[in-house]
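Quick one from the shared queue. A colleague (R.T.) flagged Quercetin dioxygenase-like cupin family protein as missing a structural entry in our internal table.

Convert sequence to structure tokens.
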Amino acid sequence: MRSSRSLIPIGSLSMQFLVDGEDTEGHMAMAEMIVQPQANVPPPHRHADVDETIRVLEGCLTYRVDGEVRVLQAGDHCFSPRGSVHHFSNPGDVPARALVVFSPANIGPAYFEDVAGVLGSGGPPDKEQLVAVMRRHGIELAN
């Protein structure tokens, strides 16, 4: 297992993978995510082949899965089964910190690095490029 993991800043979010598909033969990936207050977050989306579980460690997140909305406090968790439409936000005034598990590890550091590259290219985000990155990694925007 690799001992050093880089922090991936993505706008007002950051991801640091603790375990990725290289460590688990593709079975799962786990990252620590920090969401700044009022952050610009990914729009509602789904991944057809990946389950996602989140556990809030600090702060709180509003989390929606297929129309059910919950406010997750430290210690709470939420499961988004593959194919479900999900979305989160931090409407609070302090950063939220959470663990996120992807199973299998089809969503990992490469996805977040690609998104960060599009967002960091200067100017307003290119929505077509973002959608292309999402598709490449098995993620689609919800209609």
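The first helix runs from residue 21 to 24.
The radius of gyration is 14 Å.
Added to the table.
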